[in-house]
Design brief:
The structure is a single chain. The protein has one helix and five strands; from the N terminus they run ββββαβ. Bound molecules: zinc ion. Zinc ion (ZN) binds next to loops.
């Protein structure tokens, strides 16, 4: 059974920098924080942070997957 809407999110987000990591990761590879939340929404995949306006807007400086919004 696949239920995308109700399925557990495949990632958790670092509460410090919003980097998305799989659930089994204990430490954020970007900022080193060990605090994560599943309470996030929206994914931005940053390929070239230097050239991405959205990355600048969200203050993202490294490549990778990030949550757009954390908490509600
Ligand atoms: Zn982080």
């Amino acid at each position: 059974m696949v239920a995308m809407r109700t399925a557990r999110k495949p990632f958790k987000a670092c509460t410090n920098c919003r980097y998305l990591v799989p659930h089994d990761v204990g430490k954020c590879p970007v900022c080193g924080s060990e605090t994560f939340t599943e309470n996030w929404s929206g994914i931005i995949i940053v390929v070239d942070p230097e050239k991405s306006d959205i990355a600048k807007m969200l203050d993202i400086k490294v490549k990778g997957r990030f949550a757009i919004k954390i908490g509600v």
